[in-house]
């Protein structure tokens, strides 16, 4: 049996839950693992964590890759080297560049965390986030409807969650027409309303 550990408000847990909905894959979801249990599963003490029998895996994008491969879903993660690399390129960009950009403004304005004041650093964070969303918009202008080409892939899943968070964070946002049209297309995917555009930032 598959088990997924992590609260459903976590953006990284939600991307896995959205993928599971698309795979029509039953997973036992444990929203709040005990701290000692989490430390045993993941030395970083972070979620999500996936357990597949005796196999334990952490890092949300790695979990998504594993589940798509496990399910034989080459439409989501292609088998050919160049097509797969294109999908993984945008997944890695989401996990590194994009996540680093939004951290301060999101923590200040949505989580209202005391360590992240809503000051000039928050505005700088938003400006960098907006710039990178412009990069994504430019990419979508060159493809046939989705991030890595003309089909829905794991790149759309991870970046769809990031885009929903961008929409949900207060502040000035540029008009990005290709991004807006793509996000509307994502609404057609199973699990979108439940795990993406569900009122959680």
From TrEMBL:
Q: What InterPro entries does the annotation carry?
A: Glutathione-S-Trfase_C-like, Glutathione-S-Trfase_C_sf, Glutathione_S-Trfase, Glutathione_S-Trfase_N, GST_C, Thioredoxin-like_sf
Q: Where is the GST C-terminal domain?
A: 80-201
Q: Known Pfam families for this protein? A: GST_C, GST_N_3
Any idea where the GST N-terminal domain is?
A: 1-75
Q: What is this protein called?
A: Glutathione S-transferase N-terminal domain-containing protein
